[in-house]
């Protein structure tokens, strides 16, 4: 039985060795043949020596010239590769810039826009990958915003009119950090309170208020037993069917007893 696989492997190794030698192999064969002829054909010793010296000098010159041409060709190939990599890096930078322009039309990323580095192709690919991941998160935030919580325009005006009749109170509006939908909903309440003439501040991002997602807005007051802004807001939310926590929470309230806080949690 012929060991076909072993024969193919040996042939592959021999072919790889021959390819590595390149043009040096046929040059060596021609030089060896010329040396044999130089030694055998002339019958005088001085003629043999002269022919051998001539063949050796020609062979050395040819080998040096061939080596020079190989180095020149290798340098040219390296220059072409470097130029191609530079061109690809520039193209990736342009693609990153297009994605960056797109990201500016979407809700701002929670962790900020990733920086771009384009010193080489690997850095460019890493920057592009980070940008695509960031844009993906922004698109997800945009989709969530399409079903976001909001107060309809008619209720906005009525709620502002209702609160205006009670004078002005200081309110801080806060929301879950890194949540675009909660931020936008909280910002709407800031606008309503300001339209009513109240001293509204925010939205501020707060991570240690109400734990877990919640659809309704929470009312936080340092002294829940004291009548004031917190009671007015709860009555207003009930009258205008705005989802809210039914009670006043003191546990997470800010230290200022004269200030009520409205907290918008992450949407369930």
How would you describe this protein?
This protein has 268 residues and is of the alpha/beta class. It has two domains: 1-147, no CATH class; 153-264, no CATH class. It is 59% helix and 11% strand. The protein is built from seven helices and five strands; from the N terminus they run H-H-H-H-H-E-H-E-E-H-E-E. It has helices spanning 4-21, 24-40, 45-103, 121-145, 153-164, 180-195, 229-239; strands spanning 170-175, 199-205, 217-220, 244-249, 259-264. It has a five-stranded mixed beta sheet, with helices on one face. Helix 2 (24-40) packs antiparallel against helix 3 (45-103) and helix 3 (45-103) runs parallel beside helix 4. It is rod-shaped, with a radius of gyration of 40 Å. The mean pLDDT is 77.
Helix content: 55-70%
Q: Give the strand tally.
A: 5
- Alpha-carbon distance between the two ends: 72 Å
Low-confidence runs: none
Number of domains: 2
Mean pLDDT across the residues is 77
The biggest beta sheet reads: 5 strands, mixed
Estimated share of beta-strand residues: 5-15%
Radius of gyration: 40 Å
Strand order, largest beta sheet: 2-1-5-3-4
Order of helices and strands: HHHHHEHEEHEE
Derived from helix and strand composition plus strand pairing, the structural class reads alpha/beta
Q: List the total number of helices.
A: 7
What's the shape? Answer: rod-shaped
